[in-house]
Specification:
There is one protein chain. With about 350 residues, the protein is α/β, with parallel strands linked by helices. The protein folds into two domains: about 200 residues, Alpha-Beta Complex (Spore Coat Polysaccharide Biosynthesis Protein SpsA, Chain A); about 110 residues, no CATH class. The protein contains twelve helices and nine strands. Helix 2 links the parallel strand 2 and strand 3. The longest helix has 23 residues. The protein is globular. The two termini are about 35 Å apart.
Amino acid sequence: MIVMIPNSGWSVAVVAIGRNEGERLKSCLESTVEPGRTVVYVDSGSNDGSVDYARSMGCIVVRLDDSRPFSAARARNEGFACVMKHDPAVSFVQFVDGDCELVNGWLEVGAGALSKQEHVGVVCGHVREVNPGGSVYNKLCNLEWQQTPGIILTAGGRFMIRAEVFNEVGGFREEVIAAEDDEFCVRVRRLGWKVMMVDAPMALHDADMKHFSEWWRRAFRTGHAYGHVAALHGKTDDRYFVDDCRRIWIWGLILPITLLALAPFTMGITAAILLGLYAVQFDKIYIRGRKRGWTKPDARIYAFFTVIAKFPMLEGLVAYHKRKWLGQSMTIIEYKRSSAGS
């Protein structure tokens, strides 16, 4: 059975996905499992005991066949299919990643929002980092999660959706290995449904990033995602991620290559101009951060990493186009360790 939201007539199931999340998965499943509620855990080739733990918690476990490439999109699709097999009458499905834990009471809040807003197909709430002070990279994630409530473009990978909407959209594109949530929400909105952020806490996220190399890899994955989704939707009215890709090409490649190449012929003046342009970008992003109410240190940190992120994003963008040109599979890009090995 699926747990019914009290006094509503609506039912909610949960799909959690993970790969080597270790201790993070334990927190995730503990926040979702409740007697009578259908919770499906989808595992993408973990070797850290995640499957055994999920079964011990009473979850229905789906282990993805490794004969096909893993992706969060594929995991969510197979998790949803499993929910439909066990409880085809479910009203709403909550998706959550294995490095997140749901905030107590969110399922009731999310279901209430969907039941009252007939034009809304997807809802999400606020996400915050478990330990934003643990590293500068955790702090960056915590700043990124901050979004203004209301009608939004994308809900991220953690959201609640009407089962009928998921079926109508046709699920996630399994070949999209990052920003699959953005791509999914583009198609949700194209069908006339709205995506809404509720002004309520939804989940705690555990980035657990401690090293610059992990941040770089995450930004690399973002660049790859921008390229892939722009290729799918860039020529539509949405022009999704087109401007993001353009900024990466300009700030990560065209400007530095052009101005540094001219530096020997201008006595280094163009190199100084390049540094000045990056400084202007830093200042603009810093001012936007301050207008959002961030502290000066937080705004500086966000501005600095946003400026230099163009370089790993460029690497990821080039990697996407190389894969596409060579006809290679779009395999997942991982950037952090299992918390079991921390």
